[in-house]
Design brief:
This protein has 414 residues and is an alpha+beta fold. It has 13 helices and eight strands. Bound molecules: flavin-adenine dinucleotide.
């Protein structure tokens, strides 16, 4: 798109906001207008609540929302995973049923992939879905499902063919979480938060056509979801609601409080590099040459990781497919978080172990130490990223496999 057209887009969104934005309406009414006009997800196709604009225009469109004080679409977290997966692989029936309500925030979503016996080995899933002639019947268990306790729908990977090789017998479904056959049990973490759940299925039902992609071809669909998990979310997020008055802002604040509650510890999970210098000055640790050396190492790592993320975001904006930055960035993020936890320990000493209000920085330092390990697990562990980098980026030979042939005959621990 030329410079002139970019200016036209800016003029168009500005005029539309002037005519439509009003903080004294319900959040759903406002978001419905966004979905009708295509300004909530302007890079989505026109047929599906977008305007078919290039991703690179999102920041300038977002700037207009911020300037007008307008709230954006609801597509964040698991909702964005659901929407991008449905857009790429979903039937028109599924897109028509779910995409609009994702944008308006009327439905919450979760990801039902990991199982007690298959996390890294996602293709080893044993939760089963059997077709009874009219619908799919699901039995089994998932685990570590973030936000499942708030979710209306789940993105489910289940085994539908036990005689096919393991990657070819999986189907990707949309599952209604609000039904008697679905039991959600929360898990409490060592950092005191409860983001995750175990989800049990006992004859849970899925309509025949709620398959994303085609039957027994769920693996590439799951790969789409995972690729987006390792890339920043896109969409018009709009203005901050902080300190603003009006019905839309109040409802958006309540929505954010509920939706963000499972993620409150995520900044600590990333190591809180932002606290390091202030803490080192506060405690006097900044005069210690060893501490200074480790801080310099941390900030160098963090700066390089940030440049890599910016390179990936720039490639995404001009429409390039995801490159090695996904796995490299994920691994670099783990290294930064681990080094940050090490530096916080050096700075705070034994006090770093004190949790709650009595601990340094109101217990945040202790929370960092017990939250950082999650960085190297979520969305694919460090070892799995190294395997991907070895095989797909460096071209090293693949690991020898012992899991070929019909899934039914593969030796496994479940
Ligand atoms: C913050 C967070 C959020 C999450 N959210 C969700 C969610 O919403 N939905 C969901 O379904 N899951 C979710 N998960 C689960 C996550 O996807 C799994 O924990 C992850 O894939 C690892 O699986 P696992 O825990 O079963 O570990 P395992 O796969 O059992 O791995 C155990 C250890 O063995 C290593 N290992 C395994 N295979 C190999 C191999 N081939 N080569 C070398 N080393 C190997 C691993 O690196 C690890 O160190 C979340 C996890 C976290 C921490």
């Amino acid at each position: 798109m030329s410079e002139v057209n970019e200016r036209e887009v800016i003029a168009e969104v500005r005029a539309w906001l002037a005519a439509n934005w009003n903080p004294d309406q319900t959040l759903v009414d406002w978001r419905s207008k966004l979905a009708d006009a295509g300004w909530g997800m302007p890079h989505w196709p026109e047929q599906w609540h977008g305007r078919g604009l290039p991703v690179r225009l999102l920041p300038v469109i977002n700037d207009e929302f911020v300037a007008a004080g307008a709230v954006g679409a609801a597509a964040t977290g698991p909702r964005i995973l659901a929407s991008v997966t449905l857009l790429e692989h979903g039937s028109d029936v599924l897109k028509a049923r779910f995409l609009r309500r994702i944008l308006t925030g009327e439905d919450g979503w979760c990801q039902l992939f990991s199982e007690p016996g298959s996390g890294s080995d996602l293709a080893g899933a044993t939760t089963r879905a059997d077709f009874d002639g009219t619908q799919w019947i699901v039995n089994g268990q998932k685990v570590w499902n973030t936000s499942a306790h708030h979710a209306d729908y789940g993105l489910l990977v289940a085994r539908t063919d036990w005689d096919a090789p393991k990657h070819q017998g999986l189907t990707y479904f949309v599952l209604d979480m609000r039904q008697p056959g679905v039991e959600v049990l929360p898990l409490k973490q060592m950092n005191g938060h409860a983001s995750f759940n175990q989800v049990f299925f006992t004859d849970a039902k899925i309509p025949a056509d709620w398959i994303v992609g085609t039957s027994n071809n769920g693996w590439p669909v799951a790969m789409t979801t995972l690729a987006h998990e390792r890339r920043p979310a896109t969409g018009v997020t709009g203005a901050s609601t902080e300190g603003r008055r009006g019905r839309v802002y109040e409802e958006a604040r309540i929505e954010a409080e509920i939706a963000n509650e499972p993620y409150r510890w995520y900044p600590q999970r990333a190591g809180r590099v932002d606290l390091v210098i202030a803490r080192a000055k506060e405690t006097g640790a900044w005069t210690d040459p060893v501490v200074r050396q480790e801080i310099a190492k941390l900030l160098t790592l963090a700066r390089c990781t940030n440049w890599m993320a910016r390179r990936a975001a720039a490639a995404h904006r001009i429409g390039r497919p995801q490159g090695p930055e996904g796995s490299l960035g994920k691994l670099a993020g783990s290294n930064v978080a681990r080094q940050a936890a090490h530096v916080h320990t050096l700075i705070s000493g034994a006090e770093a172990m004190l949790s709650g209000k009595d601990g340094p920085h109101d217990g945040i330092i202790a929370e960092i130490l017990v939250s950082v390990p999650a960085t190297s697990i979520a969305g694919g562990t460090d070892e799995i990223q190294r395997n991907i980098i070895g095989e797909r980026v460096l071209g090293l030979p693949k690991e020898p496999r012992s899991d070929t042939g019909p899934f039914r005959d593969i030796r496994r621990n479940t």
